[in-house]
Design goal:
This protein has about 70 residues and is an alpha+beta fold. It is built from 3 helices and 3 strands, in the order H-E-H-E-E-H. The protein is elongated. The model has no long low-confidence stretch (mean pLDDT about 90).
Length: about 70
């Protein structure tokens, strides 16, 4: 949470994005708990070990984080 606060308040960023392997459940759950919205899934976007894996894309906008806009 401190890193998000720093990114939005100190750096003035408008958007944060996380790309997480679909099989990596703990970071995906953490993103959801922090307010990130899952925006989609890129099929077979990374090669891990001996197979292709899907990647989930999460995004968080500064106004949504600060509670200025309703999340659709």
């Amino acid at each position: 949470k401190k890193a998000i606060d720093f990114a939005f308040r100190e750096l003035g960023l408008h958007r944060l994005e996380a790309r997480i392997a679909a099989s990596n459940h703990l970071p995906r759950r953490l993103c959801a708990m922090l307010g990130f919205a899952m925006e989609g899934c890129e099929k077979e976007a990374c090669f891990k070990g001996d197979h292709w894996e899907d990647v989930c894309v999460y995004g968080l906008l500064n106004p949504h984080y600060r509670g200025e806009r309703q999340v659709n």
